[in-house]
Amino acid sequence: MQERGINSTFKKLIYESSEMVFLADDTFPYPIFYSNKAFEDQIGEKLIDRSLVGLGMDISSFIFKEALELSHNGNKYDFHIELPQDSSTNYFLFYKGEKVRDQGLPTKEEFQKFLLEFPDPQLVLKPDGEVFLSNIEALSLFGYSEDKKLHHLSEVEGLFDDSLQWKNWLSNAVSEHTIHRFSTNLTDPHGSQLNLEVASKQLSVAGVQYVLLSFKNISEKVILEKNLEDSSNFLMNLTEQVPGGLYQLVMDSQGKLNFSFLSKGIAQVLGLKPEELDNFTDISLAISRVHPVDLPQVIMSSIASARKVEPWQCQFRVKSDPKSEDYRWILGAARPQALENGDMVWYGYLTDISNQKEFEATLDESRKAAEKANQIKSDFLSMISHELRTPLNAISGSTYSLIHDHPQVHQKSELDTINFAVDNLIIMINDLLDFQKIEAGKLTIENAPFHLSSFINQIIKGLTFHARDSKNKLEVKLSEGLDITVSGDKTRLSQILNNLITNALKFTNEGEVKVTVNLINRSNGKAKVYFEVSDNGIGIAPEHQDKIFNDFDQVRPTFSTKYGGTGLGLSITRKLLNLMGGEIGLDSVVNEGSKFYFELEFEIAEIQLERPTLPNTYANQNSTLHLLMAEDNDVNALVLGKIISKWGFTYERVINGVEAVNAVNQTNFDCILMDIQMPEMDGFDATLAIKKISETPVIALTAAAKLEIKDRIEECDFDGFVAKPIDASELQKIIQEVILERNQSA
């Protein structure tokens, strides 16, 4: 809107009126110098500065009429005319409608008062630069008091920082009829630096030309813009230092997506040229570079982020060059924000993770190679174990048979030495296999019910001979409340206790080894139990107490020579306890003894097992037992046959699974001893076939570790398991248990 001296009441009434209003000068050629908003919206602001004469009208012919017809762009508009109310008013008011009638035009005095009281500095100049009128704000701007007159603009030209530029602009403003705007700097008389915006407009008053200059102090605006620019530059510089690129993605209410901001780093991440980045606002250009395989994932994850207003993250591949088939891996992440206008904005970043992916691929290949190597090692150890157990089985069985043939005293001593060596060799083989399984993460903890106090007593009973042979006293102390059935891995618990007790016996000479088991508490269906193995042996120095739990480590290298072992027993014990949720502790004093202890929590089994006992009449039935032995190895069969015969049992031998099934079809046996690895039909398939035709209990005999064939053993429903080399006492006990269980269930 163009303004010319209008009082505030008139301005409000006219400008805000819904009717079209404009003002024209009363002197030839009657230029239009003011219009209200309704006029500008409907006819256009471009009519400003055009005269009525220039529009093809003669105002004098309408001077005494009340209407004027204005034609514009083929449309005709009828305007009412209001003539000046007194000789001092030199404007015509043209309005459409009746609301403005009789409101009156501003007088020259009102115009002058309006100019003088205007809040911004105002100057009215003659074309030669003489100051015709100045308001108070203009005088203050140039350092003049209210009672002092500014005669000519040249008096203050020196205050402008670039006076030459100021003169050139002013010359154009005086000579041209259009509105001119100019930004300049001025140092006021107080030394303050001001940023000014100057606007000029030519006026015609009673045929005399003037120039209206309006000054606006925009110093705060310039400072704000400078701060914003500095902040923007800071952020831009910051984004250039951040690895990758930052972006702002906007999705409008119609679902259209576009980038509203892209840092320069985006060009590097996506392989764009600098000039390409400016035209990269369209999301479709970005999507076209995504690998076809990864595109569905990118789209679906983005949709999920938009629907749930949740952070987005995705790894995908993009083409670094549209003409190339080379892709680079990108990690994208963003946080969405829903705006009030319905738009969704993501603030995010993209970073190149190609090197990371390449490293991961290399790492994966290394992992697979390591797993393959571990598997080869595992297979090798398993094979070696099997090959070692077969001859050890012959040695162990033959030794057992000779010991029970009432040898002479010196022969028995030698046989005991052989037996002890075989037992140690078996322990070392088992340690190596268990260590390998733990390291490979393949050892699992079982959870089956067992009677706790009976289990502990069986372990102590099994080590009584060892204690007597090492000239030590082995005692056990059980607290009340342990006569319960709990669920756990009794095989691994047995291994832990055997390791600790045999170590204590090994490093104690003519002393005492004590096993203490206490029930700490019983609540919420669980029992917490404390285990302790103490001795008064050689003890362990403080500096070695951590070392003994390391793999293949012993207190001193000479210990292996003197005491035997692999240095894995305590390492495996600690790892097994960790798997079972426990932790081993140690208190030891050199030459006084050691105490190993740990706590374990067991679930109390819902079905309490009775303490296993054999009826007195069972011993008399032993001689009536008739067994089937399925064993293809002649040496193993010979040794096992001698053991069975010494028990007073009878047996028949077959050499493969087919013969075993046929034998069961023809003869009733009390128990079947089934070797797993046999020709024609192995022990697994033979047992499956036998279970279909007979209820005779079957015990698996194998040189393989039980965990390696655990699933097959359960699948075939074996009644028992004995590892080779066969412990004759253990085999006899299991035979008795499975037959007793069959008789009780019959």
TrEMBL record:
In Pfam terms, one family for this protein is: Response_reg
Task: Name the enzyme's class.
Answer: transferase
Residues covered by the Response regulatory domain: 626-739
The record, for SMART domains, names: HATPase_c, HisKA, REC
Q: Which domain of life is it from?
A: Bacteria
Looking up Gene3D superfamilies in the UniProt record yields:
1.10.287.130, 3.40.50.2300, Histidine kinase-like ATPase, C-terminal domain (3.30.565.10), PAS domain (3.30.450.20)
Instruction: Name the PROSITE patterns for this protein.
Output: HIS_KIN, RESPONSE_REGULATORY
What EC number(s) does this enzyme carry?
2.7.13.3
Q: Which UniProt keywords apply?
A: Kinase, Phosphoprotein, Transferase
Q: Which reaction does it catalyse?
A: ATP + protein L-histidine = ADP + protein N-phospho-L-histidine
Residues that bear 4-aspartylphosphate: 675
Q: Name one GO molecular function term.
A: phosphorelay sensor kinase activity
Histidine kinase domain: residues covered: 383-604
Spell out the protein name for this chain: histidine kinase
